[in-house]
Amino acid sequence: MTLYFKNIRIISPLQEIDNHCNMLINDGVIDYIGTAEPVLTNDVEQIDATNLIACPGMIDMHVHLREPGQEYKETIATGTQAAANGGYTAVVCMPNTLPAVDSVAVLEYITSRTNGNLVDVYTCATITKGRDGKELAPLLSLLEAGAVMFSDDGSCLESAEMMRRAFDYTSEHDALLTQHCEEHTMTRNFAMNEGTVSAELGLKGYPTVAEDVIIARDILLAEYCGNRRYHAAHISTKGAVRIIREAKSRGMRVSCEVTPHHFVLTDEAVRGYNTNAKMNPPLRSMENLEAIIEGLHDGTIDCIATDHAPHAIHEKECEFSNAANGITGLETALGLGLTYLVHTGKLTIGQLIEKMSINPRKVLHLPQVNVKVGERANLTVFDPSEVWNVDLSHSCSKSQNSPFHGVQLTGKPKYSINNGQVFRSRL
User: Fold this and answer.
1) 315: domain CATH number?
2) With contact defined as beta carbons under 8 Å apart, do 207 and 194 qualify?
3) Which range marks the domain in which residue 36 is found?
4) 39 pLDDT exceeds 90?
5) Is 295 in the same domain as 380?
6) How confident is the model over 90-109, as a mean pLDDT?
7) What is the CATH number of the domain that holds 50?
């Protein structure tokens, strides 16, 4: 693999780089960056990159690859190909597989299936065995086997005592605990956000406070246990932003993420009983969406993660209340971020890159990607101004449960480069 990007814009916020230059990648390594023309051999693929931006490879810290156990929805192979198609070079797979990632054997199975992949796959393991909230998983063994964080994602760890034990038990290793924040006693059998739209549609609602109360509880527990590392997954409410902002102001080691669908869509998208607008947490009101965007702008929200949740057709094409929660997101996230955040002036391109590449690695304590000569090329290359329509027939995912089919976006992934491999986007 030898690629020559002529006149490309390189943005690497951590390195304080934002320059137009030429870049040569040879055998997976950045061989040249500069304004001069390097000597090129005949086998070099030359790319006019006048309209392109290269940045440190994006990482999605919240992805459901479904393997093992639900390969009819997605596999590690199809999920990582979808990630590459969307511009990602790394993902963190969540533990609500069948069986759950609550043992070294399951974690090592996932690792063995990712060897030689363009997309680096990291693993989030469970906090409790079987995700049942009753007994801690072998957390230290899972850490040693490579787990980068712990969560019972797919459901909330409801027991405050179990959460406290997990904080205490992993404190010596400064492990990261993350939580799907939902007080289940308030949300059982919910269909959508509790509000005017749910009342009009006659659907059971999920109140925003059910998210807020768990975030507040967990932050108090993290503080009580010695200011432990804590990450709130896919936040969706005004209250969540406020609570996390306040905790950060007190020096708490708290971080959080938001999904593109929660800064793009509101519960109005559910009208017509569109099951591709059904997810957990649900789409909220405009007031909450505006608070999310403010949290992205002021830095309260650290990361953008997709919560990529593929489902088979029969799990979505059914009565709304029976439909599975979640949507695919890996292939539309960059386009949505550019369209709804950068091109509307809510974030700069550099800030978007921080939330999709730099900050997730900071939160996870993973090595940062450096864009410089001699470094392994780990890059996302995109066109920030290309206009395109989302067409799910071009998706690499095994499932196509997205509310964004046919939506026009401005900004498109073009190349994912990592581990000596190149993926050219098919979108």
Assistant:
1) 3.20.20.140
2) yes
3) 2-54+372-424
4) no
5) no
6) 98
7) 2.30.40.10
Tell me: cis bond preceding 68? Omega within 30 of 0 counts. yes
User: By the 8 A CB rule, do 19 and 350 touch?
Assistant: no
168 catalytic? Reply is no
* Distance in angstroms (rounded) separating the CA atoms of residues 7 and 15: 19
Q: How many helices (H) and strands (E) does the chain have?
A: 13, 18
pLDDT in tens, 342-374: 999 999 999 999 999 999 999 999 999 999 999
Residues 92 and 24 in one domain: no
Give percent of the chain with pLDDT exceeding 90: 98
Phi, psi angle pair for 276, to nearest 5°: -80, 0
Candidates 334, 391, 340, 376; CA nearest to 52 is: 334
Average pLDDT, rounded, for the chain: 98
Return contacts of 33-41, CB within 8 angstroms, 24+ apart: 33/371, 33/372, 33/373, 38/4, 40/4, 41/2
Same domain, 299 and 358: yes
Q: How many domains does the chain have?
A: 2
Domain identity same for 30 and 130: no
What is the predicted pLDDT for the residue at 41? Answer: 87
CA distances from 345 to 170, 293, 294, 351, 357 (A): 41, 11, 12, 11, 20
Alpha carbon separation from 317 to 11, 274, 323, 358 (Å, rounded): 42, 9, 7, 37
Range 279-303 average pLDDT: 98
pLDDT tens digits along 190-207 = 999 999 999 999 999 999
Co-location of 133 and 79 in the same domain: yes
Q: Same domain for 257 and 402?
A: no
Q: Which of 27, 307, 383, 391 is catalytic?
A: 307
159/298 same-domain check: yes
What residue has token string 């040879």? 26
pTM over 0.70: yes
